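Entry 12.
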Amino acid sequence: MSITGREEEKIIVQLNDIYRQMSPKFERCTGISQSRLDLLHKLFEVEEISQTALQREVNIDSAAVTRHLKQLEGKGMVSRRKNPDDNRFTFVRLTEEGRKKIEAYREEKEIFISKVFRRFTKEERSVLSEMLNRIQDNVSEIEY
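Predicted 3D structure (tokens):
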């Protein structure tokens, strides 16, 4: 049985719908957006990193990274400082408060993920992951 263009379109719509539903629920469950959590996870891995390098690592546009970091800095989770040798560059690091909170966020994220996949077997999750990887590869190969 071959899949029709209509069925393929439905799959794309479903994936998009899942993302739109999941994103706000994830944020309510964990208390933080996925983008900010990605930033915090990267900062957790390093002592300090330039804001430009951080932006490249997490693949979020620079304006959004700046906005997220300002808000995280306001909450005492990150600190930023200008490069003393070149004021155009800013270094970012996780504060002790940020390090403590990241653990709680990780626990909430695990709970959320377990709820998303609660009626899937290990084999089903593996097959789904393989299929989604192929979709990601196909999308990355599209040139526009």
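Annotation: The beta strands are 49-50, 78-83, 86-94. Residues 5-141 form a domain with the Arc Repressor Mutant, subunit A fold (CATH 1.10.10.10).
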